[in-house]
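Problem 12. The chain below contains 191 residues. Write out its predicted structure in token notation.
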Amino acid sequence: MDVPPRKRLSAQDWVDAAYAALGDGGVAAVAVEPLAVRLGTTKGSFYWHFAGRDALLAAALAHWERVETEAVIALGDTQPDRLARMRALLVLALEPPGASVELALQPTADHPLVAPVLRRVTRRRLEYLGTTFRDLGFSPEESERRSLLAYTAYLGHTQLMHATPDLLPDLSGYVDTVVAALTRGGCPTCG
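Solution.
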């Protein structure tokens, strides 16, 4: 009986699987044997690309940072209209899988590999939001407050999406309401 040849997996295949596992079950779900089964391969394939589980976890966290922070910010930067940028950022941030990874990482925020990435991602996002609010004409102090409010709205929505998705409103209308609330009062360029 002929056995079909196994697909050769790349390191990125393993990272993608680990990233999906992070969103499904957090740090504990990034385990070599279950990922090998999911990918239809052996643990030997894993060790061809990674020295150990921590190296894979670090790569998955770096992937999350790139895809769900830097790429989202880059897409936001393509919006010349500042309010459209704010809206686009919220829509992109609230879409899975990035929001599910964010939520799954929260219980392990003190993990030695997770903590620095989560801190860096949070700081980067808050700084970018602050810049967006300053671009709208808010003072630096008010921009900082509003960026924190925007980020907590994102985290709260993410939690609700996980715990009670049936209670969430239409995303489009919700995002419009959040943007209006965040830019109301004191915004010289918001019209």
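Discussion. Residues 11-183 form a domain with the Tetracycline Repressor; domain 2 fold (CATH 1.10.357.10). Students who got a different answer should revisit the alignment rule from Section 12.3.
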